[in-house]
Amino acid sequence: MADDELIWRIAGGSGDGIASTSQNFAKALMRAGLHVFTHRHYPSRIRGGHTYVEVRASADPVKSRGDGYNFLLALGDSFARNPQEGAYYGNEEVKPLSENLDDLREGGVIIYDEGLLDPADVPDFEERVEENDWHVFPLDLRGLAREQGREVMRNTAGVGATCAITGIDLEWIEELMADAMPEEIFEPNLEILETAYEQVSENYDVDAPDINVPEGEHEEEQLLMSGSDAIAYGAIDEGCRFISGYPMTPWTEVFTIMSQNLPELGGISEQVEDEIAAAALAVGASHAGAKAMSGSSGGGFALMSEPLGLAEMSETPVVLIEAMRAGPSTGMPTKPEQGDLEHVLYTSQGDSHRVVLAPGTVQEAYDHSRTAFRLAYDYQIPSVVLYDQKLSGELTNVPASHFDREPNPTMGKTLTEAELEEQPHTEDGKFLRFQHETDDGVSPRSIPGQKGGRYLVTGNEHNEAGHISEDPDNRVAQVNRRFQKLDAIRADLDENSLLAPYGPEEAEYGILTFGSQQGTVEEAVDRLNANGTSVKALAVNELAPYPVESVEAFVESVDEVLVVEMNASAQFRGLTQKELGRYGEKLHSLLKYNGNPFEPAEIVEGFETSIVEDGELPGPETKFVPAAGD
Amino acid sequence: MSAFSAIGEEREIDRDEYTPTVEPQATWCPGCGDFGVLKSLKQALPEVGRTPEETLLVTGIGCSGKLNSYLDSYGFHTLHGRALPVARAAALANPELEVIAAGGDGDGYGIGGNHFVHTARENHDMTYIVFNNEIFGLTKGQTSPTSPKGHKSKTQPHGSAKTPIRPLSMALTSGASFVARTAAVNPNQARDILVQAMEHDGFAHVDFLTQCPTWNKDARQYVPYTDINDSEDYEFDPTNRADAQELMRETEDKLYEGEVLTGIYYREDDRPSYQEEKKQLGELPEEPLAERYFDEDYDWERSYDRFIDQHK
Ligand SMILES: Cc1ncc(C[n+]2csc(CCOP(=O)(O)OP(=O)(O)O)c2C)c(N)n1
Ligand code: SF4
């Protein structure tokens, strides 16, 4: 194995500590100076069942999970056996070993826990090892952990063994364990780590697999963060101090992070009875003068359609998060998909509009979370941050300075009492909240309790004073004013846009994508260019209002475009075509919807076979849909 | 100076202040019981000492939801059944506001039933008025959750097979700390009950019997009524939960037999409101959230200062 990157996969049962172990391992590698990226695969099950996490580490920035992997730590599923009945869950016992072999690269390493796994039960194990030139290290990790402390610490033993084989300095792990663990469990863990390291170094030829764990150095301090962390921090930095929600995977991550942080910051978190209530609370809190957010995943967001429309009609700023997972209905709770795009764009009745931003990276998750708040409050409109299970859970290193931003607690066009005095009022002193004549469609608002700001707001169409009105002239004036905000937002977004094509400017071909596929597409672009195909990419992460000009310029500048997205109905391509009004003949789709995100190689292959060679894709994993014509 | 100087302002309040000058579109039919609620509320608010600008009235959808158009305060006319979640968030964000939610029986006990149970359980410090006319008014006379069994309407032409909901018992079992019933035909009692409901610290539920002469012609006009807090026949202690439960059951049966009992059934004055409980847990700030955004001297903490270490 002479890859210049390590992609380490730790596999076991849900509840076996796979997530925390991998997180610590990733952090240790980051501290050692490497760029890291994690990918998490887990079933919708709390304990047991096959789960794994990959940690990819390289000296250069990494943007995706990569293709396959080269180091397996198969811990065994300690929940595969049902202790009460002495029963087995089918072949689950050996899944941490058997299920992972397909993606292991040639020359890769396997460490497995002899205490829990028997390769005799794994079909064709010996043959496959031979065929692929894998290096196998059977170790009694469970026994070792038991001797020194507790069985659950076999993860640590596995990490110790990993370090012995890869040459990763134990110090990085030790230092991290010292930071992350309380004293009483740190000591036995340290013991186990070192013992495993020594046993492997002494008893095995650790130099046999040719492993080059790269060395790297960071120029500045790095943080290990997920998309969910970044969204939560963006919201907090933007002055959000109210969140209401109802748990649903994977939105729960943002909800949890916010709930754990807000009380300390003098904010409020409410777990409520359902998602209708959750979004309605955010609307109520915002009306009463707080920066507020709520959110959910597909099914829960469906319930939010009502309060979302109310926020739009009442011009109450609010931020909603939509963390997509595979649908429809309850779908696949722990698997990513980008199938809710149209749902988020078009939900709610009438000519309804909102801002929709879809961050593509952890950094962007922070930026877009802030932008979503800024736009919502500046323009009194709901904004949605649309992301998915992939971005929500993957961890990657980001420079600490990226988060080093000033807090922005401003409320947009919200008036002080002094300013309210200058505003037009009715004869009896009622504030004209919904004035028709404004520069950007935004009429300033007051907050209940302010002197001179009294007004009525309703989800019905209403006149300038907020009274219900079905007067046709007023209706047109109000609709036009609400629409006018969209132009202002588009101009604002353009001015502060994060959109930038990736790859050679003069490229012959283009790839369009949105959201969490950005990094994978960029890696694919690098490889395609290295292979001699001239390609650039544009991740359209501002979806509503749609950046027509930027996308048009991009599409114009290339011969053919591949549109990459994770759903079966090419929703993003549909949106693009609708917004641009033409170019249907240029836009080809590459789709994936089996519950796993794209790997860079799939995009490379899809691009080469379908666009360059005009052929058919081989496997059922991805689907190519040729251009439609206008 | 507070950014919300209308709050806590001490002055004589004229009930006319609550009357909007912009005439609302005539939405309520002549003789509608809803006018009675409006009248009592306009009398009660000055008595509690609440000005229009420190009062936030959040309504649902229905004829009842139009209350906002007739009462000049800060107001939010929301969605069918959703007044409570909007209102309780406002009460959390700014506990110093006088937050009143209002809606119909369809709105509050039907589509909004889930929110009712949970808002009562959490004991939010607010007042909830349900205009109970035993019918869907605004959508033209369909059977509602409080319509009597056997009630015929266009959507239940053979008569409803459903037992009506018991809003008082429901509020009590859900955890409301103040439960009362009053009637539009009884403005003085209604005013007094609303005053006490607003002064109560916690979730005050007032089931307000109103008549809908347009769609519910059979509806008894809730006269004669008996005020249980005044009547010698009904000696009981409204702080005793078991008594309250028993009496509510009786009342809720009798309503459909033509005997109307009204009054305060239950009050629990020593129970802290949700706001108070949350404050004690350190989960609700001392000052209204809204104040902060107007305070130029407020020290906004940055997330990374406090939490970023765990990512290093
Ligand atoms: C989600 C939703 N469903 C249905 C309606 C239609 N709707 C408007 S008012 C109403 C019933 C109102 O009845 P009630 O709450 O008893 O109030 P009333 O009109 O009798 O005062 C209904 C069903 C709506 N506006 N929204
Ligand atoms: S329909 Fe009934 S409830 Fe509605 S306004 Fe008329 S009388 Fe009142």
From TrEMBL, chain A:
It comes from the Archaea. Its EC number is 1.2.7.3. Pfam families: PFOR_II, POR, POR_N. InterPro entries: 2-oxoacid/accept_OxRdtase_asu, PFOR_II, Pyruvate:ferred/Flavod_OxRd, Pyrv/ketoisovalerate_OxRed_cat, Pyrv_Fd/Flavodoxin_OxRdtase_N, Pyrv_flavodox_OxRed_cen, THDP-binding, Transketo_C/PFOR_II. The keyword Lyase does not apply. Residues 507-582 form the Pyruvate:ferredoxin oxidoreductase core domain. NCBIfam families: OAFO_sf. It catalyses: 2 oxidized [2Fe-2S]-[ferredoxin] + 2-oxoglutarate + CoA = succinyl-CoA + 2 reduced [2Fe-2S]-[ferredoxin] + CO2 + H(+). Heterotetramer of the KorA, KorB, KorC and KorD subunits. One of its GO terms (biological process) is organic acid metabolic process. Keywords: Oxidoreductase. This is 2-oxoglutarate synthase subunit KorA. GO terms for molecular function: 2-oxoglutarate synthase activity. Residues 234-480 form the Pyruvate flavodoxin/ferredoxin oxidoreductase pyrimidine binding domain. PANTHER family: 2-OXOGLUTARATE OXIDOREDUCTASE SUBUNIT KORA, PYRUVATE-FLAVODOXIN OXIDOREDUCTASE-RELATED. SUPFAM superfamilies: Pyruvate-ferredoxin oxidoreductase, PFOR, domain III, Thiamin diphosphate-binding fold (THDP-binding), TK C-terminal domain-like. The lineage of its organism: Archaea, Methanobacteriati, Methanobacteriota, Stenosarchaea group, Halobacteria. Residues 15-198 form the Pyruvate/ketoisovalerate oxidoreductase catalytic domain.
From TrEMBL, chain B:
Pfam families: TPP_enzyme_C. GO terms for biological process: cellular respiration; organic acid metabolic process; sulfur compound biosynthetic process. InterPro entries: 2-oxoacid:Fd_oxidoreductase (IPR051457), OFOB (IPR011896), THDP-binding (IPR029061), TPP_enzyme_TPP-bd (IPR011766). Coiled coil: none annotated. Residues 268-281 have a biased composition (Basic and acidic residues). Residues 61-208 form the Thiamine pyrophosphate enzyme TPP-binding domain. The keyword Transmembrane does not apply. This is 2-ketoglutarate ferredoxin oxidoreductase subunit beta. It comes from Halorarum salinum.
